[in-house]
Every structure is written in structure tokens, then in C-alpha cells.
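[audit] Reproducing an earlier prediction to check determinism. Same input, same settings, fresh worker. If the C-alpha cells differ from the archived copy the diff job will pick it up downstream; this log only records the rerun itself.
[audit] input (140 residues):
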Amino acid sequence: MAEDSPEDPARRSAIMRAVKSRGTSPEIAVRALLRGFAPHYRLHRKDVPGNPDIAYVGRKRAIFVHGCFWHGHDCARGARMPKTNADYWRAKIARNRARDLTHQERLAALGWRALVVWECELKDRAAVEAKLREFLANSE
């Protein structure tokens, strides 16, 4: 039954392909927090650089909810590198980080402010809510 093992390349590939980029649990948790005090957001605006998870177009605020592994966060989960195909994953995560930086720069050039909420931060929802409130309150 080697094909059922987690190390089987076809099985691993199917698992990774099934990972969603929209409507993830962390994103839904952030949206639930925002509904309580700033509900008029828009989701995944393609007309905003980086296609932010949550956008307040009138305020020029973009919120990205990043998975720690996929975006190379410096927490324990983000620093964990797969044992198989490690070179591929290192390059993939480096490309994701470079793309994220480019999006941040493009947003800033257009007068937008951006906030990243990391998946691991959601362990302390009160702190995330405070971070979101401060980010949205500082509208110039």
C-alpha cells in the first residue's frame, strides 16, 4: 500500500492542489472580526494591485490574510520546510515573498495602505481585532 503513504508524490501533489487561495479559514475568521466594526469591505478586488483578500476601496485600505507556510512567515509553521522537493519549495516561497513585496510597493505608489494578517496571529483574536481597528482607524 505504498501509494497511500503521505510520501507518495501523486498523493502529495493532490493534497497541495486542493489547498484553497480564497475563502480559507483564516480569511473567514478575519472577515468575522471585521463584520463587528467595519462591515463594508469588498473581497478579492481584481482592480486593486495584489488582489487583496479584503479591500476598503474608499479608504484605500487593503488587508491580506497570509498563510504562514505559503508566504514564508518567520514563525514555526512558516519556517518549516518540506523534506521532499525542498529546492522547489524554497524557490516557490521566495517567489511568493517577492510577489507580495511588489504588491505592497504598487499599493503604496497608488496611495493605499496595506496590512498583512498572518495565519498564526489568529491564535490571539483580541490582538488581531486591535490590529485591524488601529489599521482602519488611521485613515488620513
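[audit] rerun output stored. Observation attached for the diff report: The mean pLDDT is 88.
[audit] end
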